[in-house]
Amino acid sequence: MLFHFIHVIISYNLNHLYPIVTGSIADDVKQKIFDIANTRGYEIIAMETDKDHMHFLISYDTTDRVCDIVKIIKQETTYYLWQKYGSFLSKQYWKKRIFWSDGYFACSIGEVSSATIQKYIESQG
């Protein structure tokens, strides 16, 4: 059976752009995304966080939709981070169980090499 994969760069922001994705929160959100990717059959090629947003280059099967991937990652990381950092996050978000903003940006890498995109993502943060 032949599988094709799509490489897409995805970027999304924290709700209200609070600069809180640093230190252990940044490490934990990255690890959780790697765990989600491994469980679901995605490959995270490059990923970097900044204080209020993140970028990653992901490879996934053509049967998956990028909107579903983003939804899964946002839901599962939000739940995980609120379980672990609930007292801290409740001060930032007034006890609303949110973390990410509603939107996201995604585009296929087209003719640009994966190495170029990886350099760009790794330069973030």
Shape by Cα distribution: globular
In which order are the strands of the major sheet placed?
A: 2-3-1-4
> What level of helicity do the residues show?
40-55%
Indicate the radius of gyration in whole angstroms.
15 Å
Largest sheet properties: 4 strands, antiparallel
- Per DSSP, the total helix count is 3
Beta-strand fraction estimate = 15-25%
How confident is the prediction overall: mean pLDDT? 80
Distance between the termini: 39 Å
The CATH class name reads Alpha Beta
CATH superfamily: Transposase IS200-like
Query: What is the domain total for the residues?
Result: 1
The tally of strands reads 4
CATH third-level topology: Alpha-Beta Plaits
- The poorly predicted ranges are none
Structural class: alpha+beta
CATH architecture: 2-Layer Sandwich
SSE pattern: EHEEHEH
